[in-house]
Amino acid sequence: TGLSNRFHFEEVLRVMTASSRRAGDSVALLALDLDNFKHVNDTLGHAVGDLVLQEVVRRIAACLRSNEGFARLGGDEFAVILGGIHSPAEVSAIANRIVEQFQGPLLIGGTEVFCGLSVGVALFPADADEPHELLKCADIAMYRAKQGEHSKICFYEDRYQAEFKRRATIKNEMNRFLKDSQFRLFYQPIVEAGSARIVGVEALVRWPDRSPVYYPDEFIPIAEESRLIDPLGRWIARTAVQQLASWHQSGFPSLYMSLNISPVQLLGGEFTEFLIRELGESAVETSAVTLEVTETTLFKDDNKIQSELTTLSNNGFGVALDDFGMGFSSIAHLMRHPVNAVKLDRSMQMDVFSDHRRRQMLEGLTLMLQKLDFQIVAEGVEFEEQRALCEVLGIHRLQGYLFGKPMSADEMTARLRRAMP
Ligand code: C2E
Ligand code: MG
Ligand code: MG
Questions:
Q1: 95: Cβ contacts below 8 Å, ≥ 6 apart
Q2: Which of 229, 260, 344 has most ligand 1 atoms within 8 Å of CB, for mutation?
């Protein structure tokens, strides 16, 4: 690429911040990262990857006055130093110009390659008054830009530091808790609509009994991103299957277990095999295990996800689409993937008695799903009126606080015993 390396770059950064200190103006540090370079490398090969990098450098350089503060810091990470800055607007203008260069495809040897770019910006001395700190801030901002759905450019803000630290803490704690198996698995009853008889349970992971407590909505995404979901997901599946085997042996032979599966697990490629092996070694039939996937999972990498789900389904596992009615609720996805059950999102239960249209929607959706022969589970049933409505609509199974919150295996066992005739 002909760019300077990290060592030279840090030297330039030191010199420029020092002279800015004397001049009383600002230095902007831009951290740039290609969005799907790994995918490009994996699918088109490294030779094409190299050509892509060269083209990327050409396009960024075209937006800069000089290449002096332009460096490649890692595989697909670049940084740009802009000196003599007097307002964030100046930086915005340049960052926007750079990002615009990546809106269309890159033409590499006649092939169109799509490669987005995310930019994080940190300002000296406003955000950090020391080069290393500045680099860290730009990195944090870049990370935010990657997460964001709307903007590819993100300016550093102080609160990001706190969030970043919180995520790092959660990740470290997870690592530690995983090593000494301290996570807990809770179970929430799923009941038959008419009789309220418990027919299944959903396994829900819980943070160890420590403070501060974190919730799955926060730590699962961090586990996915750091790939800790692989060991965590295996532990969850193994624990849940062993628990189910024990319930089957102690008088509840028809109970089923619902497991939440993250797309990262399916894309990783080894989870499917692991599950099949695990069930093979246990006394539990695959048909007693349902795998819950969300719609975003089906959006990820259609072919890979579809083939993994098909393998699992062919092996007898049930597949349920979780949180239906919350996101896109695409019928196309329902039809294309081997899904046999649909879980209606908790939000579908809200306001069904005060809002006529919401109720019509629940009715219509249920009717459609019944016509298509999906097993239907309503989530988040909290009140008797909701239960009664679900029953009238012919929704087969219900789950929610009305029938029980997620509870420990022992509590669940006691609950099952109490319900025995
Ligand atoms: P989900 O799979 O849709 O799970 C249902 C969530 O709704 C659970 O939250 C449950 O505690 C909560 N819930 C159940 N009934 C009611 C109700 O009547 N009212 C209200 N307000 N809430 C109810 P939880 O356990 O905090 O889990 C949140 C999400 O985190 C789950 O949504 C799931 O997507 C994910 N998650 C939880 N455990 C696991 C896991 O073991 N693996 C994976 N990959 N994801 C998990
Ligand atoms: Mg679920
Ligand atoms: Mg759900």
A1: 30, 119, 121, 153
A2: 260
Whole-angstrom distance, CA of residue 389 vs CA of residue 325: 17
Ligand 1 midpoint to CA 204 (Å)? 6
Residues in the chain, pLDDT under 50: none
Residue 205 Cβ inside 6 Å of ligand 1? The answer reads yes
For helices 216-225 and 158-179, the axis angle rounded to 10 degrees is 80
Instruction: Give the total residue count for the chain.
Output: 421
Q: Measuring from atom 27 of ligand 1, which residue has the nearest CA?
A: 216
Q: What pLDDT is recorded for position 295?
A: 83
Q: What angle do CA 145, 220, 164 make, to 5 degrees?
A: 40
Return the ligand 1 atom nearest residue 203 CA: 41
Q: What digits encode the pLDDT tens for the residues 266-290?
A: 988 799 999 999 999 999 999 999 9
pLDDT of residue 352: 85
Which letter, b or e, does each residue of 121-144 get, where b requires 16 or more Cβ atoms within 10 Å of its Cβ?
bbbbbebbeebeebbbbbbbbbbb
Using CA atoms, how far residue 9 sits from 18, 29, 170, in Å, is: 14, 11, 32
Among residues 305, 181, 216, 201, which one has the least CA distance to residue 257? 201
- Does 383 contact ligand 1 (Cβ within 6 A)? no
Q: Distance between CA atoms of 211 and 12, rounded to whole angstroms?
A: 45
pLDDT at 301: 65
Nearest CA to ligand 1 atom 10: 406
Compute, in angstroms, the gap from residue 36 CA to the centroid of ligand 2: 29
Three-class DSSP category at 21: helix
| C-beta 220 within 6 A of ligand 1 | yes
List, for residues 67-111, the tens digit of each pLDDT value: 789 999 988 899 999 999 999 999 999 999 999 999 888 888 888
